[in-house]
Design goal:
6-stranded mixed β-sheet, 23% strand, alpha/beta, 381 residues, 2 domains, 11 helices, D-Amino Acid Oxidase, Chain A, domain 2, FAD/NAD(P)-binding domain, 7-stranded mixed β-sheet
Length: 381
Amino acid sequence: MADIERETMEYDVVIVGAGPAGSTLAKALEGSGKRALLIDKQAFPRDKTCAGWVTPAVMESLEIDPTDYANGRTLQPIRRFRIGMMGQPAVENDHHSIVSYGIRRCEFDAFLLDRVNAPKQLATPVKSIVRNNGNWVINEQWQAPLLIGAGGHFCPVAKLLGNGPGKHETVVAAKEVEFEMTPEQADACEARGDTPELWFCRDLKGYAWVFRKGNFLNIGLGREDNHRLTDHLEAFVDDMKQEGRIPADMPGRFKGHAYLLYAHADRPLVDDGVLLIGDAAGLAYTQSGEGIRPAIESALMAADVILHAPDFSGAALQRYGERIAERFGNRASEQDPGWELPEWLKQPLASTLMRSHWFTRKVVTEKWFLHQDVPTLKAVG
């Protein structure tokens, strides 16, 4: 171990994962005197499986000027939503103002990372994590007393806590494709950029989406019942093609990913010298599956706790877990049955409510997907 100590570079914090959660935490720690290192297995910019929208609250928390961000990047203002249950007509609601933005994750994540001045080790998989004299030693090259897991659902840091990622967890599995349409495809596509489409599965175990961002089109479906994911996705895509909502000759190369919903996750969030944020912590919103806002907010709360903690013991870091519960509620509460719609909303009542302008706007869109009732979390400092 003495050789490791001589050869490693020392930091106060090592953050594994340079997506929105990791880059936000690194940015929030700047100017504090804490020396942070960001590590990610991929080079940036990189593709990231995600429908790709952010609310004005996220932009405000990140202190991003939409006009500045839109310079050379995709930023699709969203003013309407088209919502329905598969097999029945959709309901369209106009919110009369910008309620969200469509982004491309390859651009958004790179933008956040580029703002970070801390050193970065990209295209660097984590091959080893060793505890040594109160520090965590990563790949026998870098060490720090505090290790942050920000590497998504399968983050290697999450394996250090509890039972780690595995089959014991109830995950949402999703598949999607995002591609740039040809002029002919763009002309034929009836989906509109300012109006994302959300289509709920008839068994209420997931939903699909059609999301146009300028000339880019994102189509996907996520379900908790993942063994039939491909069947549901293929049926949805076929229906959308027949209705002319999407191009008939769109690419068929769908990518998959998995994540935990907050109410279903039971991962410990902290331990001695370890803390999880974003999807590594299982923070995706229970009803919508959105992970970007919880990732950003968890990073900001983690930064605040790190800056005020007397040490990095599990007891000192537990304040972070308390902050998460205060912000997102207690996990697996009886009041929040999961990503499925509540029991009282099952068929046939669900079919009726999904035809209601009031319900699809006030409950589905504004509460479940936009979280307009939740105040913006301000940046640290």
